[in-house]
Amino acid sequence: MKSFILFILFGILSSAGFSQLYFKGTLKANREKMHKNLVQNTINKNLSSSLTDSTEEDWQGAFGALEFLQYKSLWVNQRIDTAADLMHGRSETFQRAALELLYGNYPNKYYQPVKLLLMQTGNAKLFAMCAAYILNSSHATEDGNFLSVKTKQQLALDPENPILQELLYQIEQFNKPFIPAAIEGLLQKDYLPGHVVVYSFQRKNRNYPGLVMVRDANGNFIKDSNGLYFSVPQLARSSSNLPGYLTNGSTPEGIFRMKGYDVSMNGFIGPTVNVQLSMPFEKPAQHFYADSSITDTSWNIQYYRNLLPTELKDYYPMYQSYYAGKAGRSEIIIHGTTISPTYYASEPYFPLTPTMGCLTSKEIWNEETGQRIESDQQKLINALIPAGGPQGYTIVINLDNEQKPVILYDILPFIEKANRK
Questions:
Q1: What are residue 275's DSSP bridge partners?
Q2: What is the DSSP string of 93-136?
Q3: pTM (predicted TM-score)
Q4: For the residues of 162-210, what is the DSSP string, one character each?
Q5: Among the CATH numbers 3.30.70.260, 2.40.440.10, 3.40.50.1970, 1.10.287.70, which is that of 2-26+180-420?
Q6: What average pLDDT does the structure give for the chain?
Q7: pLDDT value at position 34?
Q8: How confident is the model at residue 292 (pLDDT cuts 50, 70, 90)?
């Protein structure tokens, strides 16, 4: 019933012109107020205290604000020096928050304290975050074999750990040429029959925006009023840009169950209708596979494998959403944004804004009136209406490692080839 009401609601909004939507948080005065509060209180005030057991949470709050604002100053950098030097003796929660900030805002700089933590920790997630930091640094080549050996030692103790399995694959692929996936099977008309499919085509380097397209339940790609395939840019990069198998990392590759619309109460997502997704392990297998005959409460990877076309059944990157879900990732959705894009003006993905790992569409808001004046998210929602709504699957896949945004002309040859089969 909730999805039906939302369908009617945004159908009305669409016919009336979607620029009428309003959100007071996007007013210039409110954005400036939020920025000032984050800098003065969440960052400067919290980092002014000595780092103790009772102030760890304050420092973690500051880390989150620094990552979000991409904020740096000489004094802040000195406080991060302190956090990095002391983090090996802090709680695992603090270590995780610190590593996320260091990976996103300070790549390479803190190699020594991160490697020290890697040598000491017995926590698989922290170990993987440390290893990912080193792989993203200038020391990656010299430490590659060391990281491989250490990861295999960890796996020997915990062979089914999905984070360690994904980490080992990442290490083994380091410095190897990217091998593009054969995606034509995903695009064929008879793939996942009866299900609407949203495709999010991405680059391996998530600093560059991807492209989202929609296929209806009959296997036809949605086209616009000019007869062209519908597509809008979509960002699959998180603020930290950690690997997708880690919490708050960029959106994992693979298959997501798509079921329903919602409107978020989160002030950074805003009031534009979003698309609800779930990952393997996030909800029962019966829900993910849309198969009421599945009564087994345990997850069998063979069911996931069966969702893939023949050419991709042995393509390991397409299983990242499976292993990320097994590792505990959740709450990844497709949404718009009310975040000021000015924080990321120097980034290749500007004016899109990163998240905590969701798929994000560009939205531009009038800072004088608070009205939405441009929304790729609404365009996506409008494309889903004739497709049959969000009842099916979303597929995220890296096309290649080109250092530029994905555009429609990158996808057309694959669609044409798929249609010839």
A1: 261, 334
A2: HHHHHHHHHHHHH-TTTTHHHHHHHHHH---HHHHHHHHHHHHT
A3: 0.93
A4: HHHHHHHHHHHHTTSPP-----HHHHSTTSSTT-EEEEEEE-SSTTS-E
A5: 2.40.440.10
A6: 94
A7: 97
A8: confident
